[in-house]
Amino acid sequence: MRLLIFGYGFSGRALARSPAAEGWRIAATHRDAEGAARIVADGAEPLDLADHDGLAAALSAADALLVTAPPGPAGCPAFDALAPLLSRQAPRPAWIGYLSTTGVYGDRRGRWVTEDSPLAAQSVEGARRVGAERDWMGLGRRQGLCVTVFRLPGIYGPGRSTFDRLRAGQAKRITSPGQVFSRIHVDDLAAGLVASIARPRAGAAYNLCDDEPAPNSQVVAHAAALLGMQPPPEIALADARLPPSAMRFYAESKRVSNARAKAELGWRPTYPTYREGLAAVLKAGG
């Protein structure tokens, strides 16, 4: 298996380092020397985004392509770089995965959403993801490519969790009546991607998330208890003085169903709630 990762961040790195990826030949893009060093340290091949010939060669050799880079005001950077190549060169990857967000569903006032729910993004970030999804899905239909979209909630794991904010004294235990979020441990995300690569379906969309949406205040309190710390005091959302991007995030509440991924991919989260996930992060030294 040859995997090309466009955007070697938290999620892409988790897939590359997954036990299921052992023996795969992995190449990943980078923008600077620090990014290249991280890729090399993980045993993968670094690809400079400015090296167009190298990127074209890696894409031609890839069995699978994972796009994790977020879209900006001009759209998805991976689409701009790779769509022209995918439209004219062969062979092409048998599987293309695009990491999107559950923010595409907008605010549902705590109601459940599935992959068939209308896309009604309210935030700038969510709207950009809707556009990127449509670009990738449209390319897949036009070119006969197996493009799959994964809609993700908040991703956490070792090195990126509530524990880090608690230790730094930066965690806020925000309360907003009726507000809940879904989450996913980064290892469960990687497992879902592996399952999709094994069972590709063109044009599919999957919600990869845990089984128990929960409010922020509950998760922060549980994480503090695991650390043996007093939880920070509860604070109302209106008094939290969050930056605009965070306020847009907290303006939405929904419960995200993962039933399709379970049924079609045979995937089950190893960490079905934040309780198991946080315990695993702490055990891993996170």
Overall body shape: globular
Instruction: Assign the CATH superfamily.
Output: NAD(P)-binding Rossmann-like Domain
Which CATH architecture? 3-Layer(aba) Sandwich
Residue share in β-strands: 15-25%
The secondary structure category is alpha/beta
Parts with pLDDT < 50 across at least 5 consecutive residues: none
Walk across the major sheet and give the strand order: 3-2-1-4-5-7-11
Averaged pLDDT, please?
Answer: 95
Please provide the count of β strands.
13
- What percent of the residues sit in helical stretches (DSSP H or I)? 25-40%
By DSSP (H or I, 4+ residues per run), the number of helices equals: 11
Secondary-structure element series: EHEHEHEHEEHEEHEEHEHEHEHH
Cα separation of the termini: 30 Å
Radius of gyration: 19 Å
CATH class: Alpha Beta
Oligomeric grouping of the chains: single chain
Instruction: Please give the largest β-sheet.
Output: 7 strands, parallel
CATH fold annotation? Rossmann fold
Number of domains: 1
Question: What's the quick description here?
Answer:
With 286 residues, the chain is an alpha/beta fold.
Would you kindly provide a written description of the structure presented here, covering whatever features stand out?
The chain has 286 residues and is an alpha/beta fold. The chain has one domain (2-156, 183-213, 255-270): 3-Layer(aba) Sandwich (Rossmann fold), CATH 3.40.50.720. Helices cover 40% and strands 18% of the residues. The protein is built from eleven helices and 13 strands. The strands form four sheets. Strands 3-2-1-4-5-7-11 form a seven-stranded parallel β-sheet, sandwiched between helices. The chain has a two-stranded parallel ribbon with strand order 6-13. α1 (10-16) packs across α7 (186-198), α4 runs parallel beside α5 (124-143) and α8 runs parallel beside α11 (274-283). It is globular, with a radius of gyration of 19 Å.
